[in-house]
Structure of chitinase:
Amino acid sequence: MSINGAVLLNACFVLQELQQAYEAESSATGRPQLMLTAAVAAGKLTIDAGYEIAEIARYLDFISVMTYDFHGTWESVTGHNSPLYQWSQETGAQTYLNTNYSMTYWKNQGAPVEKLRMGFATYGRTFQLSSTESGLGAPTSGPASAGIYTREAGFWSYYEVCSFLQGTSTQWIQDQKVPYATKGGQWVGFDNKESFNTKVTYLKDNMFGGAFVWSLDLDDFTGQFCGLGKYPLISELKKLLNSSSAPPAEGSTAETPLATGPTAGGSTAESPPATGPTAGGCTAPSAKNPPAETSPAVPRQYCEDRIDGIYPNPLDNKSFFLCSAGRQFVQPCPAGTIYKMSCKCCDWP
Ligand SMILES: *[C@@H]1O[C@H](CO)[C@@H](O)[C@H](O)[C@H]1NC(C)=O
């Protein structure tokens, strides 16, 4: 069973019940117990507003941290979709918007490292430049034109990025260890084999439990756009994870699971680690340390009279609201997906 992060808000009790149900089913049928996994928010503000990390971690076999969508056209300057580290010119809450910060934060809040999976993006987020500046933090006026195939303004699949790269060169953001490219007033921050390589080294050095990808169909799955064979990024990721160079102690990543796409870590017949309490462990829902609001585009009063939880964004179905103690946060849906009331989650249109 895989759960979208949005539904996890104050959901410790639900997880506890699910885990007990799985346990009962397993002992009744003699079959291996089902795994319980969740894709969770990477942003610190969303984490603070929504999760009791140590509690939910006890009931989950894997926690897939969505370490992408850190920057995009909801902002007014260029920024990378999935930086590994912070940019030296960032200050305040900006410094939370990177993979290293999120993974470290989930770990330090009490999630066991071996349960934490790092998200890898096979797409980039785009901007239209509004001046002659073209580096990181350059002023923008919105998204670049929609991709020919994905047809949604603001992001390009990796295979669309490859087409864009013809006639321009790939720039490397030293601080963040990820590439971007710019041409004709358009700008895209994306991932390539080099950034995947650096990120896997980071993942192994920190002994995180594995990786997952958003998403299979955004890689160059036919191999005809990038000239790097079929599924160049996902193949590279698999190779890097399986390579035994610089293995961590206790070898938890030697056979790192590679989960993919929206169904990452779904029901499987594997046995979970024999850990996790069977009773207790959940406290009453609370909005702890409500963080500062960060979303200027949203009507301020939206969350004022609403109970804590997840709500559709009336202005944009590619994001949703998180209300916590009357404060509101906008959480973008992963590339290509929209928010759906029916599942209270981001899903393919
Ligand atoms: C990674 O994150 C940790 C915790 O936030 C921080 O102390 C460390 O300096 C970061 N590393 C880099 C290279 O930014």
